[in-house]
Amino acid sequence: MEGFIMGRPGRRDKYNVRSERQFVMNKKSHKKKQKRRNRNDGRNKENIIEADVATKQNGDAKEPQIEQDKPKQDLCYEIKHSDVMGRYLVATRDIKAGEVIIEAPAVVVGPCSGCGLICLGCYRELDETSLTKCVGCKWPLCSSSCQGLGKYTGHSTYECETLKSVTPDYSNIEDLKDSYQALAPLRCLLLKKEDPDKWAALSAMEAHNDIRRARGDIWPMNDRNVVQRLKKWDLEYDEEEIHTVCGILEVNAFEVGVSGANARALYDEAYLLAHDCTPSTTHTDAEGRPARPLTVRASIPHRAGDIISLCYAYTLQGTLKRREHLRLSKFFECSCLRCADPTELGTAASAFRCPRCGARVLPADPLRAPAPWRCARCPYEMAAAAVLLLLQRLTDEYEQIDANDVAGFESFLTKYRNVLHDSHYLFLSAKHSLSQLYGKVSDFMIHEMSEEQLNRKVEICRDLMKVFDVIEPGYSRLRGITLYELHAPLMVLTTRDFERKAITKENLRNRLKEIVSYLSESALILGFEPRHSPEGLMAGAARHALSKIKTWEHIIGKIS
Ligand SMILES: [Zn+2]
Ligand SMILES: [Zn+2]
Ligand SMILES: [Zn+2]
Ligand SMILES: [Zn+2]
Question: Would you state the pLDDT for residue 73?
């Protein structure tokens, strides 16, 4: 949808308020990490070699287009319109969980705003001491054989041609990085001449110029970083048009790519998905495929007539934070069921603990930020401003914990157990990190963990699943990953019990059955992800574990 009672795109499903930049599953992290890294300016610029974009030039127009050729009767949705929601997508028939709803090629792909020094072809972060310069335009590349050379989803021949007159200043790396902010808008603008069909698709997207202009922060920023930059480069574009493509990107772009790639992309159709803080779909982009398609899949079953939704905020944040993010960067006030419910659909994901009686303290009116927060049992009340301060202080402290610090997360959970409710999103975030750390970092390798530690991992995963089943139900990555994490300690505990003969055959069979059910669902969910992504690899590991469990059948008979 494009109105702003519900929502509009951006990036979707960060797992965590901070574990973005953490270890195993950390897709789509970057910003903060980069800020740190970007300080390493001014080192020597040796090893800069030149690549030849001309050798790759045949690609631009010839990339296979997916979807276009598919018969339209395949579509399981239609576009609807309402004054409140703008355009949005509705299921025209029942859709099964896991079914592909949209598979769309990218209209445009470009660097994220605020990215570091990255390859113009593949968006990989570059070390300024060993980057390659494009032989045509001298802009930075990862190598002369970057797979994004000559492709419209990377460094196209027409972009190279345009940037030939804009020599990058390698003596001022900070400024060079800043100039990346103008590249995605430039790529949009170039389509007008280079690919009118894509330009038309892009032009149909909402830019919210009025709201953005009235806000007074984004407009001047884009003026400085994009409009003035393009002027300085002597590229003749209408100012209003530049602001419009900036808006289209801000409102509609998806963050794409894994592991350190810093790209955003626009997709036809997918941009029409309505926002909901409890999304009904998941999506994934295929970095390696031509046209870099985005696949949107139903995570839960849809009935004909159901709105098909996506979450443009982080599901693992509380209502205050999600709504703030949606207001600031997506320009609408979310009033979805989760946002409107003080308990966030029973999860209590924002609840504090009452200092007097220990019951939940919840917002009296979550859609009205100045409303006080009240204890569910006694007359205790907190002013909204006090809640914000407390939350800020706790978030700051939480952010200080090192991403791999098991003891740090555990002590955060202990320290604030009388302040935050068990399923407060900061606790969920800590637990989400712990669910991935236990079993994988030194001192906590899975086969060396004590029974107590293994049971702790099980407990954490079960706590998370209770909430994920509600906020990201069905075939969501969060559930797929956590189910995998849950199987591991259960398997080790079961094996140990079996080896010391502390388990009956019947009990063994039941426990293996449970493990098989977690693994099967995990393999199914994560099997939708690109094979070489962290999730795709986890799916492979889950399938492998399943086949190993099958070997137990000669001892106990058929498991499932
Ligand atoms: Zn590259
Ligand atoms: Zn070039
Ligand atoms: Zn919401
Ligand atoms: Zn109370």
Answer: 53
Fold for domain 347-556? Answer: 1.25.40
Name the token pair of 10: 């951006």
- Residue 278 Cα to ligand 3 middle (Å): 7
Nearest Cα to Cα of residue 461 among 499, 542, 515: 515
The ranges of the chain with pLDDT < 70 are 1-73, 258-261
8 Å CB contact between 27 and 284: no
Taking the domains of the chain in order of start, what are their residue ranges?
38-275+277-310, 347-556
Please tell me the predicted confidence (pLDDT) of residue 115: 85
Distance of CA 450 from the midpoint of ligand 1 (Å)? 44
Q: According to the model, what pLDDT value does residue 259 have?
A: 60
Q: Which two tokens stand for residue 135?
A: 């032989």
- Short-list 389, 442, 437, CA closest to 413: 437
CA of 458 to the centre of ligand 3 (A): 30
Cα(359) to centroid(ligand 3), Å: 24
Ligand 3: centre distance to CA 319 (Å): 7
* pLDDT score, position 179: 95
* Domain 38-275+277-310: CATH class, spelled out: mainly beta
**Would you state the pLDDT for residue 384?**
96
Residue 143 CA to ligand 1 centre (angstroms): 6
Residues with Cβ within 8 Å of 505's Cβ and at least 6 positions away in sequence, in order, are 555, 556
pLDDT of residue 560: 72
How far is ligand 2, taken at its centre, from the CA of residue 135, in Å? 6
Q: How many residues does the chain have?
A: 560
